[in-house]
Each structure stands twice: as C-alpha cells, then as structure tokens.
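Q: Start with the shorter request: fold the first protein.
A: Done. Sequence, then structure:
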Amino acid sequence: MPPRDDDLFKGAADYYELGRLPYAAQLPEVLAKELGLGPESVVADIGCGPGLLAVALAPFCGRVLGVDPDPDMLARGRRRDPSLTWLRARAEDLAFEPGELDAVVFGRSFHWTDRALMSGRLRTFVRPGGHLVLVSEMHRPGRIPPQVKELIAEFLGEYRVPRLGDEEEIIAAAGWQGPKRLTMRTAGTLTRDPETRIAEVYSMSSSTRHRFGTRLPEFDRRLRELLSEPEVIPFPATLARIWTNP
C-alpha cells in the first residue's frame, strides 16, 4: 500500500489540467456504450482530480460522484460542473451501499490506493454485472524527461514513483472478471509549449511545488532552463481496461 500522504497532490490542481496528457476525445462515448450507461446509472470517479472524467461522463449518466482527498482538485471540478456530487474522501474511507454503483472509474489514480483492499470492497459497492474501469495513457511520450527526474532527485532525494504493473493480478484475485482492453487513438501530433511541460512537472505528486520549500525559486529557474523549448509528440493513445463484477 502506498504511504498515506494527505498532501500528496497539494498545489497540483493549478497545473493538472494544463500539464497532463489529454485523454482521447472519444473516451466518454466509448465508455458509455461499453458500460451500458443510461439515465439511471450511478458512476463514481475515484481519485477524480479536477474532474476531467467525471464531467465528461456526466451526460451519459443519471448521477456521477467525483471523489478526491484534495480540496483544491474538488473545487476545480465543482466549478466545471456544480451539478455533480463532489466528495472529499480517501478511496479507502468510502462506504457506499451494497450494489449502489453501476460503475467505478479510476483515471490515473488506482495505483495510489490500497489496491487489494479497494478491489475487494468495490465488489460490494458495484452491483452484479457492473464494472470497474482503469483509464490511462497507453504509452507516455510526454512524461518527465530523465534530466528533469535527476533535477528533482537533487532537490528532494530519490524520484518517487508508485508501483505499477501488477494491478491486474490484484483485481483478478478479488474475483473481478476481465479485463477487456479498449485502445483509443487520435491521429496527428501534440505540441506542448514550455509552460505546458513545466505544468506537467508541478502536477505530479513527486514534484508538487510545496515540496521544495525555500528552494523552490532555484528549482523553478533550473527547471525552466531544461524545458525552455516546445516539444512535438505523437498524440497519446488512451487505454481503458474494464472488469465486470460477476
């Protein structure tokens, strides 16, 4: 289980939407079809951040809950769509009624939870025949460059990353069926200017601005030197993995 850190993304809300790689535009419609969403459907977006997935799925559902422990992330989501339910909570502290949810979605967030605990609890919260969905980039051409990781490590110690790669085994052990993999691709390239690249660094839990303390001005100056040029990358593919609650 990742260590509890209630300030994990403190200050990242100001940079998240600009800095993170976008999902494929067709993702909400594809998920709505695959999950069989409709006017009565209840969906929880857990670790919702500023609500990008929650707001995108709302037109296809009866009710969407955006859940995140960071109040600034939730405030941004609430400004984007005040009609949704925004709940400040850690995933492990949630308590839905049995079968209350038709689907649970994690957009780049499942790895920050106690995955074994959540995989089991969600079997209860999601109705039989409902779904668990993990959404991520299929490949990450715009992620943090090695020289930036070295800079972060110089200021903060070892570059911190969550454990990835074994979530499918953990979810299977809890009794979920799947996953079904859906890859959504967008033709063309994505141009990321220096401010976007810098925002990506500050949107990451390993390098939120408050972690640098009084050394932030020095770090920021050197970061801007490293990321002073725009980059052009292939538009990132989006991967959705869908499990069914038997």
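Q: Next, the second protein, separately.
A: Sequence, then structure:
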Amino acid sequence: MADGGVDRGVGTDRGVGTSPAVEIAQWVAARRARAGQTRVLAVDGRSGGGKTTLAQAIAERLHAPVVRMDDLYDGWDGLAAGVDQLVARILGPLARGERACWRRYDWDQGRYGPRQTLDPAPAILVVEGVGAGARAATPLLSGLVCVAAPVRVRRRRALARDGDTFAPHWDRWARHEDRYFAAEDVAGRADLLVNGAPASAGPATGWPQVVARTGLRRTVRR
C-alpha cells in the first residue's frame, strides 16, 4: 500500500500523544485518495494500545471525522461483522461516490441502533479500532497505522476506561483479537508502526521483530 518512501516506525517515550499525530496527519494528507475522493486512514491495534487517543489527535489536526470500529461490531463476538460493515457500508459506498450509511451498535441494548451517515463524503476519514486495517479494507485505504503496547499496559488502560463493561469480556475479546491479528498480519502490512507504550513499560510485545521485518528507517520520539 506504499505510495513511495515511508518512514515505518514512530516511537514515543511517554505513550501515544500529539507529536506522532502531527507527523502522521501531515503524511496521510499527502497520500492518494483510494475511496473515491476520500483519503482513509486506518488506525489498528489491540485493545488498550493507545490507538483511540492517537486517532482522535490525528483527526483533530485534520478536522476529519472518526469512525470507530466499536460502533460497527455486532457485540463481543462481532469483530468480523464490524469489518463487513466497514467495507460494505462505508468504504465501498465512498469508493463508488455514494453516501456511506451504516448502523451503530448499541452496547447497552445489545443490538444495532439507528442509521449513521457520512454526508457529504469527507476529504479525509479516520477509522480506528481492531479490524480497521483488515485485508478486505486495504484496497480502499490511503494509509494503515498499527499501534502496539505490552499486554499489561493495554489491560490496565482498557479496564481503567471501560472496567465494568470490559472486564468480564477481556479474555473472550482477546481470543477474537488473536485470531484476527494472526490471520491479517496488520503489523507486517502497516505503513507506520507506533509504539503506544510508555518507556517505563518496555517494548511492545513482538515490537523488535516487527521493526526488523518491516525495515525501520528512523524513530520519532516525543
């Protein structure tokens, strides 16, 4: 998915924040639109890695809307359904010059709720969450960012944010993540790799191997 030379590694001493966001925002704004007239940036990675914070910071820099995969999943076992919605109801229509229209999942009610739309089509769209960088979506993405952090950091963050809701389902969701990342090789296909862990937490699980495999050219630290 490369449109020429890409700096593949973005690091941070204190976790994901605005400095990587500035660089990534500038980078994606210069990429070629692949979903019609819309440049779509996917920010993928496991729960609690820091992708939501990073995606929001990028979107604010670009004045771009954010679609969250959490809104597309069909519940705790609906990761695949979320990817299907992303491609069929958001990216596909944008590529055809049609209005993106999807259903947002209501986690309290346990079912999909009212329709959501993107109208008019934005110049840049940020999609964040597990599944954003799925292979099925790749032809319509202008960029793919993968964010990683050690499991202890991710679990602490996720449960601090969504503890009462997420805690009973952590292991269940982690199994879906395991299958997804094993099948999709998101880090191996990513244009940019972001270490979402604070320096004190040590490297992200598997991060040295990922950097070596994808040919890190430089590291940007906050």
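Q: Describe the second briefly.
A: The CA atoms of residues 73 and 82 lie 4 Å apart. The radius of gyration is 16 Å.
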